[in-house]
Amino acid sequence: MSKNSEAKKEAVNVSEMIAQNKKKKNISNLFEKLIPTILFLLASITILTTLGILYTLLSQAIEFFKRVPIWEFFTGTVLKPLSQNPEFGLLPLINGTIISTIIAMFVAGPIGLMSAIYLSEYASDRVRRILKPLLEILAGIPTIVYGFFAFTFVTPIIRAIWPEVEATNILSPGLVMGVMIIPMIASLSEDAMTSVPNAMREGSLAMGATKLETTLKVVIPAAFSGIIASFVLGISRAIGETMIVTIASGSSKNFTFDITQSMQTMTAYIVEVAGGEAPAGSTIYYSLYAVALTLFVFTLTMNLLARYISRKFREEY
Q1: What is the pLDDT of residues 45-83, one digit of tens each?
Q2: CB 103 within 8 A of CB 170
Q3: Nearest of 104, 96, 128 to residue 115 by alpha carbon
Q4: How many domains does the chain have?
Q5: 137 and 185 assigned to the same domain
Q6: I need a labelling partner for 311 at 20 to 30 A (CA). Which of 23, 101, 161, 162 fits?
């Protein structure tokens, strides 16, 4: 009898274990089925956010274009939103944005690329581990700090050398923006050059090429897509910069190519209008969204261009 009872108990324990395993397996299967759905919803947040931003900009910009002809907005050279006879020409803002971006890239492009070449091809591992984090510290400085640095330090130095420069001008913020963008270009370009196989370098050196010739004729062409993508992203970053130009370039809506004068960029105009001077429902209030939509198209185009270039000219090894 005792053997029969023990056998029954063992059978019961085994059946309970099987039942528990089935429950665990069912829970695990349910969890596995839910995971793709959860990940899809999380991934959709970015898309839905972008669509929400686009809807907001379009809906408000359409109201603006009902009041101001779209052709007049994009071709007008005069921007006087607060005058008795307001005019809404976008070209002064586009002009200021492009000029500040060009100045910034004249600084960030060469310095960033040269820094990347040194870190990738010439610096030792120890030096690279020290210099790269120090370089990337520049990217962590708040842009408002850069803005006050441009206004209180860089501008006085420029005016001491070049007295014709106004107290607020587009040159100073452009130069400081370039310094801010250096880490982006240097880091991305260095990553692109580091990914080039050492066999290509060794083959070039074995054929008698110097270190500089190898860098210029082998490494840079091989990493060209990554380098160009870093430049395009740097341009996009400069176009979307706000605080530096708001503080140091002033609010004069001049349509000029004189870098010594004060100009206003699209981002600075958005900050000015959003500061409370424009009552809700007014034309100047809706102009904020029209400018913001234009800026959105600018930055989106640059990002898509960077992706296209990186895919078009990518070399896989």
Answers
A1: 888 888 888 888 888 888 888 888 888 888 888 888 877
A2: yes
A3: 128
A4: 2
A5: yes
A6: 101
